[in-house]
């Protein structure tokens, strides 16, 4: 039987299939009765699920990151789809098709990696090339970099999402930079590569997506800056050169300022031309990915508009079919 993906579910549709479980909680309702709250996802998106009159045994029967077999009914609630479950149990391995949960297939990840390597290994600057190789020849880092998401909710929140995001930004950087000859395109490309590199250790992504303890307490911006220090020292040994202190400071600045605003978590505002460009294209790519996902997952199939999203303080225009 073909599955219905999260983005395809309709109001009052009966559901009887496998999802990936995360963020499970056992909570009391207003009457004090317990219910199980859990997020269910597949490659198309995620939705909240509730199972009323749950028990401690129901809660303990599944773990975050499990594939679970769910029977229930999809419901439209306050403009978003949710699932009311009658039963949730751990799925048997034979019931799971891993491809249903992979936004990017293995071949797509490999293609993105090859594009990344081609771009970065085209850098001519000797210190930048040596720095890049210190990352690219680190098999542990590169394995994590190609598997990590760029986030757990807002944008590129899927395995391989970080790689997808970075390659997108490299394409944009190479398209934009020729219009602004005062921008050092090689420095910008390295900043694009490094800006979210801390996410390989900030996030967990073996099954469900979550923050590591280090990610919660330190965060990817500081993690990336610390990693950059270590890789700059490796680059010095690799290329038999003293890594230029000013260049290292500028690269760190791009990492530290790429969120663009102090209120968004950047400890510094962008103060170099390359940092300004990086912050702008990073914000654009993240917003377009996030907004596209909101439009795609919108359950208002017959409307030209999505529902109102409080977190972005607006509805989104879906357009007219055939335009």
TrEMBL record:
Record keyword Cell cycle present: no
Keywords: Hydrolase
Enzyme Commission number, as recorded: 3.1.-.-
Gene from which the chain derives: yhaM_2
Domain named HD/PDEase: residues: 158-296
GO BP term (any one): rRNA 3'-end processing
Taxon lineage: Bacteria, Pseudomonadati, Planctomycetota, Planctomycetia, Pirellulales
Superkingdom of the source species: Bacteria
InterPro entries: HD/PDEase_dom (IPR003607), HD_domain (IPR006674), NA-bd_OB-fold (IPR012340), NA-bd_OB_tRNA (IPR004365), YhaM_exoribonuc/phosphodiest (IPR050798)
Name of this chain's protein: 3'-5' exoribonuclease YhaM
PANTHER family: 3'-5' EXORIBONUCLEASE YHAM (PTHR37294)
Top-level class of the enzyme under EC nomenclature: hydrolase
UniProt-listed Pfam families: HD, tRNA_anti-codon
Gene Ontology terms for molecular function: hydrolase activity; nucleic acid binding
Organism: Botrimarina mediterranea
